[in-house]
Amino acid sequence: PAQPLPLPQTASSPQPQQKAPRAIDSPGGAVREGSCEERAAAPVAPGGLQSTPGRSGVTAEKAPPPPPPPTLYVQLHGETTRRLEAEEKPLQIQNDYLFQLGFGELWRVQEEGMDSEIGCLIRFYAGKPHSTGSSERIQLSGMYNVRKGKMQLPVNRWTRRQVILCGTCLIVSSVKDSLTGKMHVLPLIGGKVEEVKKHQHCLAFSSSGPQSQTYYICFDTFTEYLRWLRQVSKVASQRISSVDLSCCSLEHLPANLFYSQDLTHLNLKQNFLRQNPSLPAARGLNELQRFTKLKSLNLSNNHLGDFPLAVCSIPTLAELNVSCNALRSVPAAVGVMHNLQTFLLDGNFLQSLPAELENMKQLSYLGLSFNEFTDIPEVLEKLTAVDKLCMSGNCMETLRLQALRKMPHIKHVDLRLNVIRKLIADEVDFLQHVTQLDLRDNKLGDLDAMIFNNIEVLHCERNQLVTLDICGYFLKALYASSNELVQLDVYPVPNYLSYMDVSRNRLENVPEWVCESRKLEVLDIGHNQICELPARLFCNSSLRKLLAGHNQLARLPERLERTSVEVLDVQHNQLLELPPNLLMKADSLRFLNASANKLESLPPATLSEETNSILQELYLTNNSLTDKCVPLLTGHPHLKILHMAYNRLQSFPASKMAKLEELEEIDLSGNKLKAIPTTIMNCRRMHTVIAHSNCIEVFPEVMQLPEIKCVDLSCNELSEVTLPENLPPKLQELDLTGNPRLVLDHKTLELLNNIRCFKIDQPSTGDASGAPAVWSHGYTEASGVKNKLCVAALSVNNFCDNREALYGVFDGDRNVEVPYLLQCTMSDILAEELQKTKNEEEYMVNTFIVMQRKLGTAGQKLGGAAVLCHIKHDPVDPGGSFTLTSANVGKCQTVLCRNGKPLPLSRSYIMSCEEELKRIKQHKAIITEDGKVNGVTESTRILGYTFLHPSVVPRPHVQSVLLTPQDEFFILGSKGLWDSLSVEEAVEAVRNVPDALAAAKKLCTLAQSYGCHDSISAVVVQLSVTEDSFCCCELSASGAVPPPSPGIFPPSVNMVIKDRPSDGLGVPSSSSGMASEISSELSTSEMSSEVGSTASDEPPPGALSENSPAYPSEQRCMLHPICLSNSFQRQLSSATFSSAFSDNGLDSDDEEPIEGVFTNGSRVEVEVDIHCSRAKEKEKQQHLLQVPAEASDEGIVISANEDEPGLPRKADFSAVGTIGRRRANGSVAPQERSHNVIEVATDAPLRKPGGYFAAPAQPDPDDQFIIPPELEEEVKEIMKHHQEQQQQQQQQQQPPPPPQLQPQLPRHYQLDQLPDYYDTPL
Asked: What ranges does the record give for the region Disordered, renumbered to this chain (predicted)?
């Protein structure tokens, strides 16, 4: 879709360029990106300025014949370099490339083309660039001291000669110092190369066989010596005479290659070879016939366009690969290659084959995949040696079985990735000869495969099959997952069937014939609607693996007979119990996953002391198991992996843990454990201990374990850490975040900082800006099986001056580099793109494409999936809503929870996407059987992997939504998370988890228990958006100045206001359970400190001063300080609580909390009436000022606002009560300048401040107003009294709105005129 290059561009082109154009270097140097050298025209630079070629000379009309301009070369992705043809224009090539990447605007393409970093994607050279790697492979040459024959003979002298290594031969000139003339050739295949000790940098080269000759060569430098040694060793060690010149940017064959006359295998793939090169002396493909012994020739990916006729003249050729050469036809002349056995034509544009192909009597393999065939070519009827029909990725819509019937030699039919909708039988009774049929990824609605009566293997995954009928006489393997199957018939009973996968269908029961298949070893019926498993299934003596997860099983067969099952997966069903004799009868069972059921107990492994159990892996996460189950685990002494997260365990008896000596990995997260038994010391092989989200108070003895690698004790009640003198040698990961009471001394901290991945709540200062309270987040990462953490997360709570937030998850699959680069760079790119455009789709798309460039050389061969979520506040829209924009490539995805239901914001671009498959096919990429582009990645849109361009591109899927009060949270997750959990399940799992960090941890643990072995990353962002967050009570006449967003108003006001039902009555938020009513005359706005699971970034200095542009001079309300109606506005406030509470609402000393105030451990829910009546204010103020302002450790802390300019200060209780205090989840409540923040504390003694570097637990007593315990009752009475008065007042004032409810304040608040309005502390 590239626009043609406007030549020449005028000064008023879309983007006037200021920079001088980059010149072309002298021949052999690089033409920097953006420069352009046109033949027969003045060169044009990207911005329209004319550039002059460098030292290559300027073309002038009157001058004597000028030197010819340098030949231009283009290099993509740091790979091969191609010479440009005379008519090709570099700038046009570059523009087309950038448009193909996904840029939409020409000016943007031009700007990007000017960037010097683009060289890792596309680069131009004047003159052919030198590549050491490929030139070494083509040939090594030089003038060296050479001696022939044995060293002992004095006759042979050292002489300086030309020496060349090319192909499989060492070539030495016979004449001293000569570069031409007669050459001695030493064949090296099977020979040897040896180091000569007597001489410096000397090697001895010997040929093989009885007529063996030896040459001694002395090299000038050690580098050359090593280079020759390495290259010759490779050649000499070969068994066959083969030369690999792939990816060498060859346009013609090296002249010295023809000395290797006995060459049998030649690999020339990924070059730019021509049949007749333009240079007169160059040797093109026509010379290939000089290799008279050549058997195998690979010319794939050479952009030939036409079939190389010269190869037909090589009579010995047995294997020819000309795939991916944009061939549109095959000439009749190929018929003369009588010895050809393998002929690969994949990835071209062929629609037919010549009849002469039938002369290839020995042809046994013909590759026709990813071409344009609409039918099976008839010539295949004559090719009787071919037994496999390879036609995947073509354009066949119907399969005519009549054509197959005429090819009785075809046994294996591969037709995946066509568009086959039906099979046409045409009176064909049976196709006896087809034994393997592959119809994956087609459009079949039903399939009657009874006609293939000798079928052994059938693949029909990812169709739209509702019914499937198969002949069972010889059936060995059936793959039919991801269809809509409700009926599956195999007749007769398949006695040879050993593997069957019918997962992800709609089957309601296991077909009868399955139980009778005597040789069935693996049965996968997961993700169906099966309610019952037949008992006979377990009796099958050959069944080893039964996967029945994600069904509707209410119970398993009751009385089981002895079964041979080794792997049993029944996760995600509705099992209330497992059969009582399951573990006794299944004595071969090694793996059992019963997670996500409703289990309350476990069956015993044995009825006596003796046990036969060989169970090694047991996954029981997300059930209702209690402490009673733990003793039963001791019946499995060989247990290695035990996952019992999210059950109802309150203790794990030490005596029981002691018996599980072979345990290597244990996950007990999400229970109510107060300690991990000290007998964990008996588990000497233990490498992973995960026990987050419990109530653990004492640091366990895990640091004494010799093999320990990973310890996760986040979200607990730890107060200190006990460490041995030396840390365990293999410890890589220790997570202690979310432990609010934890205090670490310097020594401990220094020791722990030596761990590769050590996480603790970040220290924060009292005046650091907190996250805008509309959002708070928690994130977690977990490494995969090989202990490589190939994921990364990004979280910026105050992105771009506190008005915005940015979150991301990056997944490198098996590489670590790309996720790390994305994590470090992507936020900066987005910030830059936001300066260029405000259009969500545009700036997100451009961010991803620019990131492709920023990956540099790492992105050429490696890649990674990414999802970015950007929350922004629209400064132009006075309505002031927040927009959430999500962009993703690969399998990283976002889901938003709205009204308790998942709203996916991402899309996974893989082969099953119609338009993506079409695009991939157009670019003639090969999709391998595992569904990967060229065998590399299953995602067609992903960052990096630039060598797969244009099949794989970085253009993301972008989706924006306006955030509403119904939006509760959103989740960003990597591939591992979404492969294990559906979006519905993920949302349901964390909807009632109040803390974002604990929510992210839960998702990660669930995924691992459900079978994920990859690295996982999850970010949970909790939202608290209210309709009243943004108000335009008194916009200026022009309406130009919007109200401040929560992020920019006094430094770090943390707003969290939960949803309010339409009737205006306060209801508890999901995390509170109940709320006390403290009705107060809170006049301006209802603020609250939200719980952020990580300390937020500090804002740029000066960004939040009152006089800065971000802080509008008109100080408007945020939550309607002046009510527009006479009704109460009741909202839930989440005031930060400074004492540490456990989940039951009691504090750490188990004292009763204040009546009517409920806490969940991370915040107190208080219900507050917000209204604007000024009545009774003074009376209340007098009451409060009578209270002595003594500092006390107990009591209700009531804090008023900081001094406002022009505001008379009547009492010195202006500081916010949580300055610098740790919140219960480890983050610090920042200093606030809000009006009238209510803070309530219980009568419990204040605990120690949590976290390292914690600010003082209490602010200065002078800065707060504290009510001693003896006056609490009185204050409560006053509050109650006022509440009743106000309710009466409201009822009286119902009919007309009284004037004092709508005071028309001037645009700049005259604060000094309203002292009583602002000074009320409550």
From this structure: 1-71, 1059-1111, 1275-1322
Cα angle 706-710-711, degrees, rounded to a multiple of 5: 100
CA atoms 686, 692, 696, 699: torsion sign: positive
* 1271-1301 residue pLDDT tens: 767 767 777 777 777 777 666 655 544 444 4
Q: In the predicted model, what is the mean pLDDT of residues 504-524?
A: 94
C-alpha–C-alpha distance, residues 9 and 106, integer Å: 12
CA atoms within a 13 Å half-sphere pointing along the CA-CB vector of 1041: 15
SS3 content of the chain, % helix, strand, coil (to 5): 20, 20, 60
Please name the helix (run of DSSP H) or strand (run of DSSP E) that holds residue 1272, with its range, or none: helix 1272-1292
Q: Determine the pLDDT at residue 183.
A: 83
Residue 539's pLDDT band (cuts 50, 70, 90) = confident
Q: Strand pairing partners for 176?
A: none
H or E element at residue 539:
helix 535-539
Average pLDDT over residues 1231-1255: 37
Q: How many residues does the chain have?
A: 1322
Contact 1117, 1031 (CB under 8 A): yes
pLDDT of residue 905: 95
Residues 138/254, Cβ–Cβ less than 8 Å:
yes
CA distance 161 to 145: 6
> Which are the contacts of 1274, defined by CB distance < 8 A and separation ≥ 6?
none
| Alpha-carbon distance values, 1107 to 1084, 1100, 1110, 1111, 1201 (Å) | 21, 15, 8, 6, 19
Beta bridge partners of 76: 122
Helix (H, G, I), strand (E, B) or coil at 780: strand
Q: Quick one: which H or E segment has residue 206?
A: strand 202-206
Six-digit token string for 743: 């205090």
Contact in structure between 849 and 942 (CB atoms under 8 Å)? no
pLDDT at 713 over 90: yes
Q: Which of 783, 817, 811 is nearest to 1013 (CA)?
A: 783
Residue 1278, classed as helix, strand or coil, is helix
Alpha-carbon distance of 1108 to 32, in angstroms, equals 43
DSSP 1187-1201: S-----SSSEEE--P
Quote the CA–CA distance of 391 and 367 in Å, as a whole number.
7
Give the C-alpha separation, 1301 to 1122, whole Å.
7
The residue written with tokens 């920097």 in the block is 32
Three-state secondary structure of 495-526? CCCCEEECCCCCCCCCCHHHHHCCCCCEEECC
Is the Cβ–Cβ distance between 1144 and 1269 less than 8 Å? no
End-to-end alpha carbon distance in the chain: 64
Q: Is the pLDDT score of 1102 beyond 60? A: no
Q: CA-based diameter of the chain, in Å?
A: 127
Query: What is the amino acid identity at position 985?
Result: E
Place of tokens 């803390």: 995
The DSSP bridge pattern shows strands 1016-1023 and 775-782 to be antiparallel
Per-residue pLDDT, 782: 87
The DSSP bridge partners found for residue 1166 are 1076, 1133
C-alpha torsion 835→840→841→842, nearest 10? -20
Q: Hey, is 892 helix, strand or coil?
A: coil
Residue appearing with tokens 């290839």: 360
The Cα angle at residue 866 between residues 861 and 869, in degrees rounded to 5: 155
279-331 pLDDT, tens per residue? 666 788 888 888 889 999 999 999 899 999 889 989 899 999 999 999 999 99
> What is the pLDDT, as a whole number, of residue 863?
95
Q: How many CB atoms are located within 10 Å of the residue 1206 CB? A: 12
Q: How far out from the chain centre does Cα 215 lie?
A: 56
Q: How far, in Å, CA of 412 to CA of 364, rounded?
A: 12
For 912-962, the pLDDT digits (tens) are 888 888 899 889 899 998 889 999 999 999 999 999 999 999 999 999 999
